[in-house]
Design goal:
Distance between the termini: 67 Å
Strand order of the largest sheet: 3-2-1-4-5-6
Oligomer: single chain
Number of helices: 20
Length: 545
């Protein structure tokens, strides 16, 4: 192998205290890596930078003399490094890092090779890391002894390794393929098209494989939080990052005295009915993943215990004398505004601070109209697979062209999709079941559209009643005319979907504000809410000013 280019070729490397040593004429019978570098007839070293501990300076001087004899064209420079223990990673890395920062590299004029054959394994690792980070703008040089069984008059082998992975198409393609497969896995193989959602999944994938800290998944009911949590666990399992199980519970189902027992376990006899020990969900998730869906519904006592378990990895089962430990990663899901619940005294601010490190908000289906078509295909495939499993005569569900166009036009043109993917899944199940031979036609689609619209209309009325009752109480709600209920519910919906009071005003008064020179929409909303004893802070989304 000849020089990389017409530029000067510079080799940097540590001397090998054992491999490079030797004295007397017999030293020439030994393979000495640093000397052998300069013995290759087709490999010219213009300058050799020898890195050495101060106490090994005599050996470095001996090597410089021998190199001068066999390769007069090679300039050998000796650099003393400040570290005492060649097996201390921090010491060695610090010394090499300081040298790299002070060395006058001129990559436009010189080619650099980093000799990693000599030195301790710690030193070799440090050199690799510093080359990968480009502190040493160099390729790696690996040498080996001659293959002959006797004698070492030959210089041996050498191999140059370039750490610029973009040069290695197959490696770059493999990494890209692995990431693409991981993203597809998190999306259940659905080729989603919404740019914001795809970017969100990319970030979740990166965090999932690089962090063991809690992950909080927020978003409306049916947005896919539970399914995504399951797939995050499966992805980590594939990467050998968890050895335990995936344990899931909906916190809305944990009520009263049984909540503590379900989460943290109990000892036999801890309370009436405790006939045997119960491990609890946290212990069952040891070395695995615990998914607490609807974490906002958890009681305050349970929240306090959970916080301690997250911070100390230990907790006390009900009725136990000794604590137990569990190493689990927490995934949490909620459709609540947890900051609002903190203000209401229903959620601990210290627990929120602990689980709010990685928070990802999953958008509802209405915000992702581009993704309705691929998700429709996915749900049709799921329905077909389930039908085949149960031996149904309808093994395959599909839509004719007219039916598909009709459904997608309805689905992507402002349909509210209150239940999100649960609504879409239910719609496909109904259409597939009613379709003769599994072939959905336009008539079945129109019937399903009417059913969805009626269901959403009833749901909006129920949601408005619950919303107003939460804010005003039952007595306050009963004191409102129907007209006021409808109007107030719409104002609150807009406020909760707006980042600020001014933004809510622009939405609510878009027409009338255009006729005023100095519109004061924020003040209009304040006065309107005050009529019902409400304020912006009581209806605003989390963190809104």
């Amino acid at each position: 192998m000849t020089s990389h280019s017409s530029r000067s070729q510079i080799v940097l490397g540590l001397i090998g205290i054992t491999l490079d040593s030797g004295s007397g004429p017999e030293r020439w019978e030994r393979w000495r890596p640093t000397v052998a570098l300069c013995q290759h007839e087709d490999f010219v070293v213009d300058r050799l930078e020898l890195l050495v501990q101060k106490r090994h300076r005599p050996l470095a001087e001996s090597l410089r003399r021998d190199i001068g004899n066999i390769s007069p064209e090679t300039e050998t420079r000796i650099h003393e490094l400040e570290f005492d223990d060649p097996w201390d990673f921090e010491e060695v890395y610090g010394a090499l890092h300081d040298f790299a920062l002070s060395y006058p590299f001129e990559p436009e004029e010189e080619d650099y090779l980093l000799h990693i054959t000599t030195g301790t394994h710690v030193a070799q690792i440090c050199l690799f890391l510093l080359a990968e980070s480009r502190h040493f703008p160099a390729r790696l040089l690996q040498t080996g002894p001659p293959r002959r069984s006797r004698g070492h008059s030959e210089p041996g082998t050498r191999r140059i390794i370039d750490l610029d992975l973009s040069r290695y198409d197959r490696i770059a393609q493999r990494f890209h393929r692995e990431q693409s497969e991981a993203l597809s896995f998190l999306k259940a193989g659905i080729e989603t098209r919404n740019p914001a959602f795809n970017q969100l999944i990319e970030r979740i994938e990166y965090v999932a494989v690089h962090s063991q800290e809690p992950i909080l998944l927020t978003g409306p009911t049916g947005a896919g939080k539970s399914r995504l949590a399951q797939r995050i666990f499966e992805l980590k399992k594939q990467r050998h990052q968890v050895a335990g199980e995936f344990v899931e519970v909906n916190c809305a189902t944990l009520r009263g005295d049984g909540a503590m027992s379900a989460l943290f376990g109990h000892r036999r006899g801890a309370f009436t009915g405790a006939l045997q020990d119960r491990p609890g969900l946290l212990l069952s998730a040891d070395k695995g993943v615990l998914f607490l869906d609807e974490i906002g519904e958890l009681g305050l006592d349970e929240q306090a215990m959970l916080l301690r378990a997250l911070e100390e990895k230990r907790f006390l089962p009900v009725g136990a004398d000794q604590e137990v430990g569990s190493e689990f990663q927490l995934l949490a899901g909620t459709n609540r505004h947890l900051a609002s619940r903190v203000r209401e005294g229903r959620f601990r601010d210290d627990l929120l601070a602990r689980i709010d490190l990685w928070t990802f908000e999953l958008p509802g289906l209405q915000a992702r109209p581009e993704d309705i078509e691929p998700n429709l295909d996915y749900e049709l495939q799921r329905f077909s697979a389930r039908s085949q499993e149960v031996g149904s005569k309808t093994h395959h569900a599909s839509m004719n062209t007219e039916a598909r166009r009709h459904f997608l036009r309805f689905a992507t043109s402002g349909a509210p999709w209150h239940g999100n993917f649960r609504d879409l899944n239910a719609a496909v199940i109904r259409m597939g079941t009613l379709a003769p031979g599994g072939r959905v036609d336009a008539g079945i689609v129109q019937e399903e559209i009417a059913r969805l619209e009626a269901s959403w209309s009833r749901g909006e009325a129920d949601t408005d009643s619950h919303l107003l009752q939460d804010l005003l109480g039952a007595e306050g709600l009963n004191g409102l005319d129907r007209f006021d209920r409808v109007q107030l519910a719409e104002v609150i919906r807009v406020c909760r979907a707006s980042p600020s009071l001014a933004a809510a005003g622009r939405k609510l008064f878009a027409v009338s504000r255009s006729r005023k020179k100095q519109p004061n929409d924020a003040d209009r909303i304040r006065k309107y809410l005050a009529r019902f004893g409400l304020s912006w802070s009581s209806v605003a989304p989390d963190g809104s000013p």
